[in-house]
């Protein structure tokens, strides 16, 4: 095991490269939850640790935008953390002499990822699961996006947080009064759940319902609209599909790699854990 | 499995495969609930992994209607301005 000083040095470098939060998880801890073929050791032979980067979240002001469309457009930048993770991989190899790879963060096939960033971040102490689709909530920043580096370097792990970030006290009070929470009431299609004795008792999330909301103009929409156009026998109607606003947005999203994901935010817009940071702003 | 999956096989197994994926996720503190991997689904349904991948991938699009994508903006904007606490 390398020293705590080295781990601290790596964390400081990671924050200097643009991450808002950083934590370290052991591959052993992740493997207790991640299924075979989706473990860090499946991506890098001999992997010992995962350095998890958190950041890329909406600015405080983004939560005060006038429309959901604007929030969906500026709420998330996929590139920033991926760039930091790649740089950190080079540093770990060149300065410390251990193999390192950025976590493959695209979809493996279809809606399945290479591995769960959520499990990695949870095991690195960067947040706990919430009533809002099980999204990890960080006590300082609320919503964070994640990326990371898998390495053969045996780093001291941070481990999961002991105290759950969700539910917030105000959500517990709302639940006791109305049997709902801000997130559940924001999206009753995708979310359901129950709070018992001040804690999450259970939460269910329908990813299939969330997909068209969070990825309204992304790859799935493009393919569905394309199939609709191909199957349309009337040439004028075909033109309406292909030149219409939905297909135009889908093509643009893919061409510019923008507005591809995180286009909804309804479930977190009134989350008190997220909003406490916003309230401090003028 | 070379090429594409037959639609006959897809139609026979799409519901079974779909139920085992992570399309619906449940979290209960202290319990391990997760959708199955393609390999685990293949073992459960006695299909090949490649067949499961194809069936899952098609179903992920097939099970979500085009209307759900087209109506999404409207739904989100309405909820964006709804006061909290309403069930």
Order of adjacent strands in the largest pleated sheet of chain A = 1-2-9-3
Class inferred from helices and paired strands of chain A: alpha+beta
Helix and strand element order of chain B: HEHHH
Oligomer: heterodimer
Gross geometry of chain B: flat
Q: How big is the Rg of chain B?
A: 17 Å
Number of H- or I-type helical stretches of chain A: 13
N- to C-terminal distance of chain B: 48 Å
How are helices and strands ordered from N to C of chain A?
A: HEHHEHHEEEHEEEEHHEEHHHHH
| Strand segment tally of chain B | 1
Helices, strands, pairings?
The complex is a heterodimer of chains A (282) and B (87).
Chain A: H1 4-16, E1 21-26, H2 27-31, H3 40-43, E2 49-55, H4 68-74, H5 78-96, E3 100-102, E4 107-109, E5 112-113, H6 117-123, E6 128-129, E7 136-138, E8 142-143, E9 145-151, H7 169-178, H8 182-186, E10 191-196, E11 199-206, H9 207-214, H10 219-231, H11 235-243, H12 245-256, H13 272-279
Antiparallel strand pairs in A: 1-2, 2-9, 3-9, 4-5, 6-7, 7-8, 10-11
Chain B: H1 7-20, E1 24-27, H2 38-45, H3 49-62, H4 66-80
Helix pairs in contact in B: 1-3, 2-3
What does this structure look like?
- The complex is a heterodimer of chains A (282) and B (87).
- Chain A is of the alpha+beta class and 282 residues long.
- The longest helix of chain A has 19 residues, at 78-96.
- Chain A has 13 helices and eleven strands.
- The termini of chain A are far apart.
- In chain B, helix 2 (38-45) packs across helix 3 (49-62).
- Chain B has helices at residues 7-20, 38-45, 49-62, 66-80, and one strand at 24-27.
- Chain B has four helices and one strand, in the order H-E-H-H-H.
- Chain B is flat and about 50 Å long.
- Chain B is mostly helical.
- The interface between A and B is large, with 55 and 39 residues.
- Strand 11 of chain A pairs antiparallel with strand 1 (24-27) of chain B, so a sheet runs across the interface.
């Amino acid at each position: 095991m390398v020293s705590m000083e080295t781990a601290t040095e790596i964390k400081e470098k990671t924050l200097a490269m643009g991450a808002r939060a950083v934590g370290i998880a052991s591959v052993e801890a992740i493997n207790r939850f991640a299924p075979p073929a989706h473990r860090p050791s499946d991506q890098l032979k001999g992997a010992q640790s995962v350095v998890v980067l958190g950041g890329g979240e909406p600015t405080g002001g983004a939560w005060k935008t006038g429309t959901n469309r604007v929030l969906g457009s500026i709420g998330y930048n996929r590139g920033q953390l991926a760039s930091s993770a790649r740089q950190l991989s080079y540093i770990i190899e060149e300065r410390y002499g251990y193999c390192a790879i950025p976590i493959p963060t695209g979809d493996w096939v279809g809606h399945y990822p290479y591995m769960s960033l959520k499990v990695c971040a949870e095991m690195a102490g960067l947040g706990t699961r919430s009533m809002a689709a099980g999204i990890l909530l960080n006590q300082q920043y609320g919503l964070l996006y994640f990326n990371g580096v898998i390495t053969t370097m045996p780093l001291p792990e941070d481990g999961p947080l002991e105290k759950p970030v969700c539910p917030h006290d105000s959500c517990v009070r709302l639940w006791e009064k109305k049997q709902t929470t801000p997130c559940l009431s924001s999206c009753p299609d995708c979310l359901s759940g129950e709070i018992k004795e001040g804690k999450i008792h259970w939460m269910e999330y329908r990813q299939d319902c969330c997909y068209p909301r969070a990825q309204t103009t992304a790859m799935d929409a493009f393919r569905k609209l394309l199939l609709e156009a191909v199957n349309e026998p009337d040439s004028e109607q075909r033109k309406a599909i292909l030149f219409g606003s939905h297909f135009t947005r889908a093509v643009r999203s893919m061409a510019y790699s923008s507005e591809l994901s995180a286009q909804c935010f309804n479930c977190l817009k009134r989350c008190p854990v997220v909003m406490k940071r916003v309230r401090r702003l003028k | 499995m070379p090429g594409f999956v037959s639609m006959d096989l897809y139609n026979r197994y799409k519901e079974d495969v779909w139920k085992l994926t992570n399309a619906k996720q449940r979290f209960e503190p202290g319990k391990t609930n997760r959708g199955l991997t393609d390999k685990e689904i293949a073992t459960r349904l006695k299909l090949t992994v490649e067949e499961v991948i194809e069936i899952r991938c098609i179903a992920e699009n097939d099970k979500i209607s085009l209307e759900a994508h087209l109506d999404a903006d409207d739904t989100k904007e309405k909820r964006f301005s709804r006061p909290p606490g309403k069930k």
